[in-house]
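Changelog-adjacent note: as of this version, every example in the card shows the full chain rather than a window. The one below runs 201 residues end to end.
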Amino acid sequence: MVKERIIVTVMDLFSQHGIKSVSMDDIARAVSISKRTLYEFFSDKETLLIEGILYNQDWLHALLTKLEKTSPTAIDIILLAYMELMKRPRWYHPRFYEDLKKYPKALQQKEDEKNKFISRCKRLFARGVKEGVLRDDINFEIVALLAKEQAKMLHPSKSFCNHSNTEVYNTVLFTFMRGVCADEGSKILNRYAIKLSYDLK
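Full-length structure tokens:
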């Protein structure tokens, strides 16, 4: 589908180069279509950006909904969702978030997405506490906010140049998760840590 291909391609371009530096000509060229065809789908860059944000939001919503129905615990949901994201990670240049401020409608959409994500995280963490896999002495509202910041998938700084992006994010995630897991949750976490260590070889 041409429209979906445009959206996926443009979000990759925006994430790598920022939003302002990518022109509609660049987008048309990257998708191998005419600019006229591009404008038949999207009236301007901000419309395209909003569609991209919605597309990513819908994809993540569908993934989490599926995992919530099929996974035994909240920890399984978190880690399986993370593993799915890391199959094709989109690393965002910091410029993307700076440029986003110049597109008010898209920024509002991103804020709406953030609020929905935080609410969903809080429900997921509450489920984990009830299941006994997450600790009950943690302020999970703060944890949900931290999770949202982590979900930005920013390129790690040059300080981590001796390590792959995946290794950096795996380390951050598992260190973070170990801090909130109850004893039963730690057992589940260890199984995934072993699996990911094998997958990285």
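Structural remarks: The chain has a mean pLDDT of 90.
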